[in-house]
């Protein structure tokens, strides 16, 4: 078995275990179950956003507005809580989901119906969403004391000893897994990203499929927005600033092909956990968090280089074939 | 023989190809062809689609390397290892679709790759503009050297391409279907230009399917057929019919399956189908059990019509009846629901999703059948995929294998299995055997016969005459977006097809 034939998820899993082992060699406390659980819980928002981003990237698009969507939806939830402290918490999560999906639908429509490249659309909406937060909040913070206790406590409710936030992430992982592996829409994601021309002939509406990927990404970002604001008990304009890069990074490290058409839920989760471990380990080993940027950047480049290597022989065959297909015979 | 004819016959042979062989895996594209181009003469290269014309152009311009034979420049053997070498030797090509840069100016396009240099090796823009303007003026083109190419029409772009050819002091100018996209007036202007290039002593290779142009412009002809050299001579010594015979006359070495078609009720009727730019007034009826061939030259609008039929583009007018009920097909999904499927020509690009496994490719348009409560069921997907892959004798280690790792022939089987799994009533095969070897061709032909035998209505779009004649029960010939002939039985002969497709028949009618 060569390196190339081992599933990427296995390699990534081993890398994460090795990383934990290295850290544990000097700081055994890091690998205590309770600490690992808290690392995983901290990483839950990244996992949820990466799941949505994964669907979008698989369809050959990209969603740079996820972090801004998270912040805007989070702010809307916070303001609603301030204005109506009695708003039932059971409805807050579905509401955030719908608001986020709506914001994602804006991206989707601009890509589908107006035909603007996704990177431009989401770069634009990223800024617009942040601007709207400013308009809504007047630039001021919504602080913990303004929020109701039930609002801020919701993500921390323990279920079987694990925070609800983590459970929601688990449900999201399972849901997206089912969606992409077991439904016609999930298959369409891969088909559209793998070969949009062929997808059209197969009766798949490419634009609509990409639209739905954006809606999914938006819904997950919105839902995470509420959980984020509640967990950290603060909402302001710059929440999760730059987080979209971590999200894209988690996908790329997890083996999602940036050119679309390939990737797995397992890879994405592991990609996010890899970044989560680094983020949580650096303070422990007493390295400046700024190193985290350099390390995750390096990890991205290594991951892409590995992707390129594993795809190369295939690429050659495709090139040869393309050459033939132009051949008059 | 007059004096001038003799001196012409002895005209300087600038570039000669001697016994050129070019092989692609499974296909011999050129099998020992000869071609000689003489100074001050236009040589027309004539041949059906697939005769090897484009391959020869690519060899002449250094894009392909021949596997055998010799290229002689002024009688001395030469090699063109890359496009630059060919350009330096003075060989330049004006392609079907001109390969120019939209966002650069006319002057930049003319001089790209060999811009005049000033001090410190920087581009001498003033000199470049001046020379570009001179060249454009010399060919009578009133084009501003400063405008972007994107702002020019196709005819003007051709002029820029010609100016580019002149800027490198080309001795051999290859024109590959240069009139395909031009209006009548623009064609006349192009002809005047060709005459001018001739008078400057350039050797011109003119490739066209249009006989009127060939007889109007060419001094000599060379005919290729199936990658082989058939003949050459002076254009004055041959008639239209002679050329057609040379193009199509062949030893029948392909065996087509014997069928005894059982033709049933009409399945699909198309009436007055039109598109603003691609095709007009298409009418025909397709019956079950029938193979209906669509013949025409490349660009006759056949594929465009088929794509409209399955809802990829919208027709401006026209009605489709399926089983005598009017149906509006707005999307490929609707076409699949109506039982009409289209296997596109460019299967690499439009066929399989190479990253997905075989079974997922096969079930892609049929997921409704293999799902329950909105969730796909892998066991049923495998069962469906296995049924059709076995029918096509698809050999793969497992249906879980990604399609990208299969051979080209097997990928094609996956695509066909995908369409059969939808249980269609009408299957449209666009150039079903293009680019595959003889053995696979026979398998595809057998399979088509089997489909028709099972009562499917089959439409086969093909540019290969033997295939059209060998497989079709009826042939529709399209030319410039219109149906120009519908042929059956004894009317179906190679000569008749070519005459209709090239427009010779219409010229005769107009003349009478």
From TrEMBL, chain A:
Coiled coil regions, renumbered to chain: none
Pfam families in the record: BPD_transp_2 (PF02653)
Alphabetic keyword roster: Cell membrane, Membrane, Transmembrane, Transmembrane helix
Subcellular location as annotated: Cell membrane
Record InterPro entries: ABC_transp_permease (IPR001851)
The keyword Cell membrane belongs to this UniProt entry's keyword annotation: yes
Entry protein name: Branched-chain amino acid ABC transporter permease
Mode of membrane association: Multi-pass membrane protein
MF terms (GO), sorted A to Z: transmembrane transporter activity
Organism in which the protein naturally occurs: Thioclava dalianensis
GO cellular component: plasma membrane
Entry keyword Cytoplasm: no
Ranges that cross the membrane: 6-24, 36-58, 64-84, 91-110, 116-136, 157-180, 211-233, 245-278, 290-308
UniProtKB/TrEMBL annotation, chain B:
Protein location: Cell membrane
A GO molecular-function descriptor: ATP binding
SUPFAM superfamilies in the record: P-loop containing nucleoside triphosphate hydrolases
Record key words, sorted: ATP-binding, Cell membrane, Membrane, Nucleotide-binding, Repeat, Sugar transport, Translocase, Transport
Domain of life: Bacteria
Principal subcellular localization: membrane
Residue ranges of every copy of the ABC transporter domain listed in the record: 15-251, 263-505
Pfam families: ABC_tran (PF00005)
Keyword Repeat: yes
InterPro entries: AAA+_ATPase, ABC_carbohydrate_import_ATPase, ABC_transporter-like_ATP-bd, ABC_transporter-like_CS, P-loop_NTPase
Membrane topology: Peripheral membrane protein
UniProt key word Hydrolase: no
Gene Ontology CC annotation, any one: plasma membrane
Protein name: D-ribose transporter ATP-binding protein
Organism the protein comes from: Thioclava dalianensis
């Amino acid at each position: 078995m060569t390196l190339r034939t081992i599933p990427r998820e296995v390699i990534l899993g081993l890398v994460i275990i090795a990383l934990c082992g290295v850290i544990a060699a000097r700081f055994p406390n890091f690998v205590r179950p309770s600490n690992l659980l808290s690392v995983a819980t901290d990483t839950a928002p990244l996992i949820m956003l990466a799941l949505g981003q994964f669907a979008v990237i698989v369809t050959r698009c990209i969603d740079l507005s996820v972090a801004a969507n998270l912040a805007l939806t989070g702010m809307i939830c916070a303001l609603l809580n301030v204005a109506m402290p009695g708003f039932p918490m059971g409805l807050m999560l579905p509401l955030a989901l719908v608001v986020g999906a709506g914001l994602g639908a804006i991206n989707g429509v601009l890509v589908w119906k107006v035909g603007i490249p996704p990177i431009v659309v989401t770069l634009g909406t990223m800024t617009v969403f942040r601007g709207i937060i400013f308009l809504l909040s007047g630039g001021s913070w919504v602080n913990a004391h303004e929020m109701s206790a039930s609002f801020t406590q919701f993500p921390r409710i323990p279920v079987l000893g694990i925070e609800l936030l983590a459970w929601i992430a688990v449900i999201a992982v399972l849901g997206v897994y089912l969606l992409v592996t077991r439904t016609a829409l999930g298959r369409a994601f891969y088909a559209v990203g793998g070969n949009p021309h062929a997808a059209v002939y197969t009766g798949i509406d490419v634009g609509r499929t990409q639209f739905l990927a954006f809606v999914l990404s938006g819904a997950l970002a919105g839902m995470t927005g509420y959980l984020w604001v509640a967990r950290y008990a603060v909402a302001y304009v710059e929440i999760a600033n730059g987080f979209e890069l971590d999200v894209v990074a988690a996908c790329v490290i997890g083996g999602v092909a940036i050119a679309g058409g390939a990737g797995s839920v397992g890879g994405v989760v592991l990609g996010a956990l890899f970044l989560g471990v680094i983020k949580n380990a650096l303070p422990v080993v007493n390295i400046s968090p700024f190193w985290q940027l350099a390390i995750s950047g390096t990890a991205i480049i290594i991951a892409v280089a590995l992707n390129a290597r594993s795809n190369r022989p295939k690429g050659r065959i495709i090139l040869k074939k393309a050459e033939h297909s132009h051949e008059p015979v | 023989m007059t004096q001038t004819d003799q001196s012409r016959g002895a005209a300087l042979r600038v570039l000669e190809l001697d016994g050129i062989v070019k092989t692609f895996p499974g296909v011999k594209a050129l099998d020992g062809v000869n071609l000689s181009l003489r100074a001050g003469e236009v040589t027309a290269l004539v041949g059906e689609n697939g005769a090897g014309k484009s391959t020869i152009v690519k060899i002449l311009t250094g894009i392909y390397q021949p596997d055998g034979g010799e290229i002689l420049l002024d009688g001395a053997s030469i090699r063109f290892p890359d496009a630059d070498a060919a350009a330096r030797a003075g060989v330049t090509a004006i392609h079907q679709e001109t390969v120019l840069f939209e966002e650069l100016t006319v002057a930049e396009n003319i001089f790209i790759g060999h811009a005049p240099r000033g001090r410190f090796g920087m581009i001498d823009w003033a000199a470049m503009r001046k020379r570009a303007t001179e060249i454009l003026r010399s060919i009578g083109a009133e084009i501003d050297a400063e405008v972007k190419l994107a702002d020019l029409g196709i005819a003007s772009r051709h002029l820029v391409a010609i100016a580019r050819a002149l800027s490198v002091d080309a001795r051999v100018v290859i024109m590959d279907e240069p009139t395909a996209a031009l209006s009548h007036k623009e064609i006349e202007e192009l002809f005047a230009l060709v005459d001018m290039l001739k008078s400057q002593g350039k050797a011109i290779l003119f490739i066209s399917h249009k006989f009127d142009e060939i007889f109007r412009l060419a001094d000599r002809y060379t005919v290729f057929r199936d990658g082989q050299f058939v003949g050459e001579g002076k254009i004055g010594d041959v008639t239209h019919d002679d050329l057609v015979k040379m193009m199509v006359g062949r030893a029948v070495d392909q065996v087509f399956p014997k069928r005894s078609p059982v033709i049933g009720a009409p399945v699909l009727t198309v009436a007055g189908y039109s598109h603003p730019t691609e095709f007009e007034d298409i009418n025909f009826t397709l019956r079950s059990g029938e193979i209906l061939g669509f013949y025409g030259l490349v660009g006759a609008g056949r594929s465009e019509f088929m794509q409209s039929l399955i809802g990829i583009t919208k027709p401006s007018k026209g009605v489709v009846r399926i089983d005598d009920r009017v149906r509006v097909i707005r999307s490929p999904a609707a076409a699949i629901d109506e039982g009409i499927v289209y296997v596109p020509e460019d299967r690499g690009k439009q066929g399989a999703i190479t990253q997905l496994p075989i079974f997922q490719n096969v079930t892609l348009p049929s997921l409704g059948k293999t799902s329950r409560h909105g969730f796909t069921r892998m066991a049923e997907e495998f069962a469906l995929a296995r049924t059709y892959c076995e029918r096509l004798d698809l050999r793969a280690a497992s249906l879980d294998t990604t399609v990208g790792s299969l051979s080209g022939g097997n990928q094609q089987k996956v695509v066909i299995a995908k369409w059969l799994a939808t249980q269609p009533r009408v299957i449209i095969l666009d150039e079903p055997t293009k680019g595959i070897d003889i053995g696979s061709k026979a398998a595809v032909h057998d399979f088509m016969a089997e489909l028709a035998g099972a009562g499917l209505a089959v439409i086969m779009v093909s540019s290969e005459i033997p295939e059209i004649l060998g497989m079709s029960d009826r042939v529709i010939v399209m030319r410039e977006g219109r149906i120009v002939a519908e042929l059956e039985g004894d009317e179906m002969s190679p000569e008749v097809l070519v005459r209709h497709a090239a427009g010779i028949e219409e010229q005769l009618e107009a003349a009478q």
